[in-house]
Amino acid sequence: MIRQFAYKMAGIPTETIAAFKAKFDADPKNHLAQNVCSRQDMLDVVLKRDVINGPHHVYTHKIKTEGKPVTNQKSSGRCWIFACMNAIRIAFCKEKNIEDFEFSQGHLFFWDKIERSNYILSALTEILKKGEKVDGRLISHLLHNPSEDGGQWDMLVNLVEKYGLMPKKCWPDVYSCEKSMRLGRLINNKIREFCYKLKKAVDEGSTDDQLTTLRETMMEEMYRIISISVGSPPETIIWEYYDKDKKYQKVGPITPLAFYQEHIKQNVFNMEDKIVLTNDPRPQNPFNKLYTVEYLNNMMGARPVLYVNQPVDVLKKCAAESIKNDEAVWFGTDVGKCFNGKLGFNDTEMYDYDLVFGTTVLGLNKSDRLIYGESLMTHAMLLTGVSINEDETTSKWRVENSWGEDHGEKGYIQMTDKFFSEFVYEVVVDKKYVPDDVQAIMKTTPVVLPAWDPMGALAHTAKL
């Protein structure tokens, strides 16, 4: 029997809707805006022409030689890998006297997929043994997108220090590197299935050795899937090239790890010498403390993801000092906010929502955006230039992206200093640019944030 309810008109009262419409119709500007927005991209309508006509890609300080060619991650979330490789190649090209060069992003992509699958299965085993419910917040979070393409800086350190680097010519991208969605879906499918099997094994009282054997069987299957999709990275490489003087050069046979240790780490770019500075202004997370995020990593037993929380001006100062010394800076930001991809601008003043819609998209401050889920780090890029005013404050930044040459100024973005303040969350700089008192924080015990905290977000954005 269907139960009958006596109720008044559901939802918003009809007279209230009528009042909304009457007020809307009373302002002719609303109809003009409606006519335009119904036929055009909203961002083109709210774009302030006087703002975008002003900026120029000229900076008081810029690294002497930027990397070539402009890289393109295509339809994948590998921006964090590309930004790192782009940072290293600047110093590497200078050392080797070469002009055009790329490291193999697919090499690190392959090993990240392998290691991260093992990490998540090991973490799930640990969590299940503690009696966590599968539909609880923690496991639900970990199973939401376990094969995520994105990452953070310390995950790169883990990969490079174990597997090394190689030139892209020695192992180019393949289809599943450039268009990773289907591989990601397949990995997600298997990890969720494996979680089910691990839960069953734990419930049946399996020993630690039995669970380890079960995971190894799962990882054998995962290795097969990833190797078929991406290929198997070479164990040794031979790199032949001409330098700028047209002289033939050869490196190898050599392993990718030895290539990194001998040709990069010693005198070009030491991954372990970098420090991650973040700007998280939420009142519950004070500055001048070390933080990590629970179950945020890509490799068992490896370096944890650590960052020192600092006021945004510290991030700017350290980044500017690095650029002045001809060293580019890996950074993480919420790129989609106040952004025009085609023109290549990140500017909080470039869109006039108030004129068109009578509202603003900047109604929350940086802290509240994190708290209410309005913003977090989504993309990693490279800072290669900065303009510094006479009073030593910064005004604008030059950014090397990894979306090809058809965005911005042949692949480069201009970011205003105000945008940096509002939407940049991480910078990675060499320790020599970090004050001693901030470096000392790295030796303290980190505060552990929950796995779902926004500061655990992974840089992953493909072209917008």
From TrEMBL:
One of its GO terms (biological process) is proteolysis. GO terms for molecular function: cysteine-type aminopeptidase activity; cysteine-type endopeptidase activity. Its EC number is 3.4.22.40. Its main location: cytoplasm. PANTHER family: BLEOMYCIN HYDROLASE. This is Bleomycin hydrolase. It catalyses: Inactivates bleomycin B2 (a cytotoxic glycometallopeptide) by hydrolysis of a carboxyamide bond of beta-aminoalanine, but also shows general aminopeptidase activity. The specificity varies somewhat with source, but amino acid arylamides of Met, Leu and Ala are preferred. It comes from Owenia fusiformis. It is an enzyme of class 3 (hydrolase). GO terms for cellular component: cytoplasm. Gene3D superfamilies: Cysteine proteinases. InterPro entries: Papain-like_cys_pep_sf, Pept_cys_AS, Pept_his_AS, Peptidase_C1B. It comes from the Eukaryota. The keyword Ubl conjugation does not apply. Belongs to the peptidase C1 family. It holds the Pfam family Peptidase_C1_2. It is found in: Cytoplasm. Keywords: Cytoplasm, Hydrolase, Protease, Thiol protease. Transmembrane segments: none annotated.
